[in-house]
Amino acid sequence: MFPRHLLVASQVLALVILGSAPAIADISLKEVPTVEVPALDIEALNLDDIERDRNGLAPRYAVPEPVTITPITHGRWTKMNSETAVWRLRTRCKNAISMNYGFSRWLVPVGGEMRIYNMDRTHRIRAFTIDDIQDTGVLWTPAVAGNDVIIEITCALEDRWMVEQEVELSSINPGYRGFHEFFGIPPSTNTGPSMSGSCNVDVVCPQSATWENEIDCVGVISTGGSLFCTGFMVNNTAQDGTPFFMTADHCGVTGGNAGSLVVYWNYENSTCRPPGSASSGGPGNGTLNQFSTGSIYRSGSATSDYTLVELTSPPNPAFGVSFCGWNASTSQPTSAVGIHHPNVEEKRISFENQAPTLTTNFVTVNDWDLGTTEPGSSGSPLFDQNHRVIGQLCCGNAACGNNFSDDYGRFSRSWGLGLGAWLDVANTGQLTVDTLPAGGGGNVELCSNGVDDDGDGLADCDDPDCFNSPACLPAGAGDECSTAFIAVDGANAIDNTGMTTGTDPISDAQCPGTFLGQFVNDGWYSYTATSTGSMEVSTCNSISFDSDIAIYNGLCGALTQIACNGDSTGCAGFSSLVTGVAVTAGTEYLIRVGGWDAGTGVGSGTMTITVGGGGPATENCTNGTDDDGDGLIDCADPDCANNPACGGGGGNGDECIDAILVTEGANAFDTTGMTDSPEPDPTGCSNAYGENASDGWFLYIANFSGDVTFETCDINSFDTDLAAYSGNCGSLSLIACDGDGGTAAGCQGFDSMITIPGVQAGDSIILRIGGWGTADQGPGTLTITVGGGGGGGQGDECNDPLIAVVGSNAVDTTGMSDSADPFDDAACTGTFLGVMASDAWYQFSAPVSGTATVSTCDLIDFDSDLVAYTGTCGALTEVACNGDGTGCGAFTSLMEMNVTAGTNYFIRIGGWAAGGQGTGTLEITLSGAPNPENCTNGTDDDGDGDVDCEDTDCDQDPACVTPPENCTNGTDDDGDGLADCDDPDCTADPACQAPPSGFAYTAVDVTASYAPSTGTGSFSATMTISEDSAAVGYPNDTQGFSFGIANDPGMVSATTWTSSAVLA
To answer: Is 378 a catalytic residue?
Structure first.
């Protein structure tokens, strides 16, 4: 169904794959030539990623580096034996976490294969063979963990020419986040902002019961070796397994790059990490070893943000990939489920228990009841209550810790935009299709409804289809504290049939007005509080047996009972209700539900958990504490994504948590369409403070110390109210507020002004600008000025220096304070230092040893002084200085000093006289070179991270160069196990040339074809064999010859020979 046609020139006449290539002996990789791509500017990439997210672009995990590399131009060929050759290329990027590759041409011969693995051999991907050849000729690979990676192609010696002609590497893509970010690092040692939030739910958790087939159709994708999203296999009305795959249009898959699509399957955590726990917010243990590569673009539209492609081959059946069902009608769903890969992490599932909102182009989940979505979830499917896709994720702001909405491109809208033409080729008019499970069609076994859904005679957990279903957990699950079920907010199914009676201690001293019984057949549940407040646990009127409940904190084996209930007032059947349990967000509690006695205490039902009387605390993004109890601290918490302290640029300004970042100077704003925030209006404000209507929120982080004035003066603005707060959203403290106190000239007359004295650099102030009356909103200008006090931001003191590098470094000493560190102009030849006013500090690490020239000569707009130190802050040693450099205008400076590679130096720039400050450039140049690499001493001499022959500087060193084969000395000179003419390197050597045969042979019109679906192919050629006119005695002394053609029966299943006429 998916043939691949290729041209080859080989002496095999019919092709049948009968075995794999022989194993390759391990050899040293030190001599493999290296292509090194530039190191990644991680800080710049992170800033750009924030901007990409604001603009609705697909998340990025790697940066493509275009190259043109073939086995002719780069790498090295090695002879493995008399029949096999291998080509290798080493690729590096010093600070990458992964590498992936794009080939603009890729074709290997029968029996050939390509392997990719890291230098440490700790990670590799499966071999690529002729089965991976694409009609388009391109190949894009999955990511390999590490920054130093080998590409290796093995083939028969006689096929080397094909590899050289048909393989071209065009893109090396070093990764900096996402795939393999925590490879080889124990999960307990990792926290990071790129991990998915702790409120997410693993797809192996009990909540996913009955959704197993839909889970199997979802994968995480890479496009162009750079972008990541989620997508899913999609069924069609023929239900014939055509490998259609859907994702979001904004994920960037187009007709021009569809061949670069890589889909990873079954990237899931192996266990259920309790939602809300620290482990759920940490690294998972999923693997990325199951993948498909290559696709053909079929259809797409930005209107409903969908893209449909067809994979170039179906997923490997061993992967167990299903095809999602769908609903293209306009009917109203009653609930929704999302399955996705948040932040390119392991697969998760999210639940919305209410009906989503429908518009023309989108389906909107108003807020998730369990789980959420995050960047990377884009393109993931949204299912209705009938397990059918009704949309793919477009956009939204949902995250752990908020109740924001998500928009999904509506499947029914995409249907009429071109999707239906591919999924209903026969034009049946059918608008709903169910999920096609892995392995074929038919009804799906739901595993928990007591029905034999798929008609195989086995129901629920008796059916092997349910082997991995959370509804069919192995015996013992939940029977002891150590194997507790995961409980969540809301209803949790309970069935203590078959449970044993535990021996953990119980006491009814905490059960007011009631008693506990024998706690028979007790089941255990682990609940991690999602908010801080008062918890209620209830089996009241929802269970079929006489129940007891006990609640504990602590660890299994060392539990502390904190609450209990036997029979609650008003609850029928002696069922139970525990109320008033104080819980803290992020803390785990163990809940034990048992029966009163053996006669009345066994059955099933529902346990409901609710928490009220408070909500989760707001995460303070800079205090090193997990304030909201979600297991994530400061910038690791997605709640801090927009916080400037975590590299964010602020939000849309409508609420405190989405405050817009502002800075010194004029800041334009617009409150049009803003809502009235629920935060209490400030009281005690001066100058006619009004209603604070349509208020916008702003975050100011002081760059300088001093008295800071905020003013809304703008002739075209509206009647403003202005308030300033300290603290965090949800726990703000009013600093000051003003209605019409502005005093600047030329304003509209009702502007506001606040001055806050004694602000220190780095302080955060939250600002709120609203309208005096309900109709007052619109654009305006917030002007921020600093005065009355000294002190700048980074670089103001030795202990917080700016980083200087070889080349140009920006200088701005405006607002810097006068440092107290000592300086002396005794080391300043022919010049003097002044008072070092408003000085700025830089730290410079010398990359090489030599002479450094540090200069502001004609590069700065004030009379400058320069001083350089070694040592540590508080214990500095002055090593150089200059006041006025020779030949430098305007009393600018220039100094020279001897530096040692790897040593840190502090450079101090100040004004000669009081008040001397300004802007310009600090230029650093170096004479000298790094220490040379000694290629045999086991040391990294030049500090580039590579030792001896691993360092490319040693490529030509005799200790690292394999000698050429001497073809006549009887010795294996190049160490490949082959000597003299047995070595393919000697093929062209005259000593190894065969004598003239006397005959000429040509073969033309050589063609071949091969079909992977059958494992067979064909070969045909026109051959001419004639006497060689260059032979001695031609033509009279060379009369007649005979010949035969031999074939390998192990490779040829059938041959046909047809003779042509004898040439005259």
So the answer is: yes
Helical (H) or strand (E) element with 161 = helix 160-166
Buried b (16+ CB within 10 A) or exposed e, 874-884: eebebbbbbbb
Cα Dmax for the chain = 125
Could you give the CA distance from residue 293 to residue 315 in angstroms, rounded to a whole number?
Answer: 9
Domain locations in the chain? 34-175, 196-433, 476-612, 650-785, 802-927
Beta carbons within 8 Å of 974's beta carbon, 6+ residues apart: 962, 963, 964, 965, 983, 985
Backbone φ and ψ for 133, nearest 5 degrees, come out as: -70, 135
pLDDT in tens, 482-505: 888 888 787 777 878 778 888 888
Q: How many residues does the chain have?
A: 1064
Q: Which of 304, 313, 378, 705 is catalytic?
A: 378
Q: Of 37, 173, 41, 65, nearest to 116 (Cα)?
A: 173
In the residue annotation, 405 being an active-site residue is answered as no
Tokens representing 203 are 């797809």
CA–chain centroid gap for 36, Å, is: 23
DSSP string, 224-238: TTTEEEEEEEB--TT
The overall average pLDDT reported for the chain is: 81
Q: What is the mean pLDDT of residues 1029-1053?
A: 58
Tokens 């939940």 correspond to 478
Other Cβ atoms within 10 Å of 304 Cβ, number: 26
Is 927 catalytic? The answer is no
CB 598 within 8 A of CB 518: yes
Give per-residue pLDDT as tens, 526-564: 998 877 888 899 999 888 888 999 999 888 888 889 989
CATH 2.60.40 fits 476-612, yes or no: no
The CATH classification of domain 34-175, taken from the options 3.30.70, 2.60.120, 1.25.40, 1.10.8? 2.60.120
| Residues whose CB falls within 8 Å of the CB of residue 517, separated by 6 or more in sequence, listed in order | 546, 548, 566, 594, 595, 596, 597, 601
Options 74, 250, 340, 341, the catalytic residue: 250
| Alpha helix segments (H runs only) across 472-512 | none
DSSP 8-state secondary structure symbol assigned to residue 1008: E
**3 state SS of 593:** strand
Q: Among 36-45, 273-282, 867-876, 1044-1053, which is the least confidently predicted range? A: 1044-1053
Q: How much is the pTM?
A: 0.47
Give the confidence band of 841 by pLDDT, cuts at 50, 70, 90: very high
Structure tokens at 312: 């170039």
41-78: b (≥16 Cβ within 10 Å) or e: eeeebeeebbebbeeebbbbbbbbbebebbbeebbebb
d(CA 460, CA 452): 7
CA-based nearest residue to 17, from 1050, 1055, 1006: 1050
| Intrachain domains 650-785 and 802-927 with the same fold | yes
Lowest mean pLDDT across 167-181, 228-242, 1041-1055: 1041-1055
CATH of 196-433, one of 1.20.120.680, 2.70.150.10, 2.30.110.10, 2.40.10.10: 2.40.10.10
Q: Is the pLDDT of residue 442 over 60?
A: no
Q: What integer is the mean pLDDT of 91-97?
A: 92
Choice among 29-38, 187-196, 424-433, 588-597 with the minimum mean pLDDT: 187-196
pLDDT in tens, 941-971: 665 667 777 777 777 777 777 777 788 888 7
- CATH of region 802-927: 2.60.120
**Which CATH number is 650-785's, of 2.60.120.380, 3.40.50.1980, 3.40.710.10, 1.10.760.10?**
2.60.120.380
For residue 761, pLDDT over 80 is answered with no
Mean pLDDT is lowest, of 295-309, 468-482, 890-904, for: 468-482
Alpha helices (H) in 42-125, listed in sequence order: 42-54
Q: How far is CA 12 from CA 7, 82, 1023, 1050, in A?
A: 13, 18, 14, 11
